Amino acid sequence: MMGRRVLERSPAMAFRQSERSQQMFLPPSIEEYVPQDDPVRAYDLFVDHLDWKTLGIVADEHQAGCPAYHPKTMLKILVYGYSYGIRSSRKLERALHHNLSFLWIAGGLQPDYKTISEFRRNNLKALREVLKHCARLCIKLDVVAGNTLFVDGSKFRANAGIGHSCTAEQCAKQIEQIDQRIDEILSECEKLDTQEAKEDSMVHLTQELAEEKSRKERIEKAVAQLKKEKLQRVNTTDPDCAVMHGRQGCHAGYNGQIVTDARHGLIVQADVVNDNNDRKQFAEQIQAAREITGKVPEVAGADGGYYSGPELEKMAAVAATVLVPARGQVHPSDSKPFAKGRFTYLADENVYVCPAGHRLTYRRTCEDRRWREYPLDGGTCCACEHYKECTRGRNGRKIIRYFNEDLRDRLRRQFEEPANRQIYKRRKQKVELPFGHFKRNLGADHFLLRGLAGVRAEMSLLASCFNVSRLIGLFGVAELLARLSVL
């Protein structure tokens, strides 16, 4: 109570007082709004150094009517906003009115949210190209070598609810319900025409009719895509997204893919797919990265989720050394003495020899699944002292040898080499870090745009902004500005 009485007698004693009516003056020039070493200057110069001739954004300097905002200004707003987790067009508009850094990078211009949203929507293809230009800029700065590349993927939520993922039958039922509602609206409109109805009632019904027709058209397009791609389900809000299974359960989403360079963890390639797993992505993503770096990587690696037997030929062709572990290779265990790897294949005799010395001979070939079968008869297995350790089947043990088994063995041996093991240990810190930055630091665990073209554009922006942030960390703002200025 004593302390409270003292505060009441002297309210200004221990606190700094604010004064909103105090007159203040901003610097006379927008150029002085931010210091010379502010990161916003690096983002500004980065956009200026993009190859605008090949980027794909065309500025019509001779258009009639009210002057438009320059594409460079609009792209700078997007890039700087995405760098700090401000992706919504409405939030970007607010930042242009209240944030000095945004005022500076926009040169005092303040486009509204509709203009920002329209620019982004109309330039999806060009926005996807931004990362390619950024990666080539990193190569010129000698911070990307392209010798060792790592691939990783992560699930992102789509701008659609999983409840809108429907089968063809469910879509047909929805269309039937919409048709019924359209008939009801038309009947109500006819009644209103014969009565002295209020004008706002007719306006409301007209709006609802337009909404129902638009919804029907959207569902019909989704059904057409479902039939064309032979899908089991399609999302009527965003037909390109898929039902993704992750740690947080099932949701409508996409599978984001990135390829990073091992030198500084900079992103050289980013993509978004709607496959639920990564098994078909390794060769495709590394090949796309090769086209950007202009060279074949000495080493390319990914986690075990990318390992796919049918894809091994493609995977082995994109790099000199491929480090993708097969099942059980990352954390090998000696608790299975009769695993397939313990059986010896004698190529000259075309037989397998088990750890107990028994011979498994060739029986048949399955062309569809591309393998050959080598069984051991049940009587021999049952009489063996290791019977229950090796197999519990009455028909005995059998080994499946795939057509590309030699390649599988070569990739296993590559992964087991001590030097390659050390390279693989760097994978997590180099390729998983960007996804953590996107989701935790920027709050970008979901996409705002819909459709593959939209989400790929967003991923390109996020990856480019990550690279610029890394460059600032590597060089500092002043040094980075100096290096960019001489390119």
What is the count of structural domains? 4
CATH topological fold name of the largest domain: Nucleotidyltransferase, domain 5
Structural class by SSE content: alpha+beta
In the CATH scheme, the class of the largest domain would be Alpha Beta
Helix content: 40-55%
Would you identify the CATH architecture of the largest domain?
A: 2-Layer Sandwich
**Unreliable residue runs:** none
User: Could you tell me how far the N terminus lies from the C terminus, measured between alpha carbons in angstroms?
Assistant: 68 Å
Average residue pLDDT? 88
Number of helices: 19
Shape: globular
Query: How large, in whole angstroms, is the Cα Rg?
Result: 31 Å
Most strands sheet: 6 strands, mixed
Q: What is the total tally of β strands?
A: 14
Taken as a percent bin, the fraction of beta residues is: 5-15%
Description:
- The protein is globular and about 95 Å long.
- By secondary structure, the chain is of the alpha+beta class.
- It folds into four domains: 30-59 and 66-122, no CATH class; 144-158 and 242-329 and 414-457, 2-Layer Sandwich (Nucleotidyltransferase, domain 5), CATH 3.30.420; 163-235; 340-396, no CATH class.
- The protein starts with a helix and ends with a helix.
- 47% of the residues lie in helices and 14% in strands.
Features of the shown structure:
alpha+beta; Nucleotidyltransferase, domain 5; 4 domains; 19 helices; globular; 487 residues; 6-stranded mixed β-sheet
List the helices and strands and how they pair.
Layout: H1 2-9, H2 39-48, H3 52-55, H4 71-83, H5 89-98, H6 100-105, H7 113-122, H8 124-140, E1 148-157, E2 165-166, H9 168-194, H10 199-228, E3 234-235, E4 242-246, E5 249-261, E6 267-273, H11 282-293, E7 299-301, H12 312-317, E8 321-323, E9 344-346, E10 351-353, E11 359-361, E12 364-366, E13 371-375, H13 378-383, H14 387-390, E14 398-402, H15 405-416, H16 418-425, H17 427-441, H18 452-475, H19 477-485
Parallel strand pairs: 1-7, 7-8
Antiparallel strand pairs: 1-5, 2-3, 4-5, 5-6, 9-10, 10-11, 12-13, 13-14
Helix pairs in contact: 2-4, 2-18, 2-19, 4-18, 5-7, 8-18, 9-10, 18-19
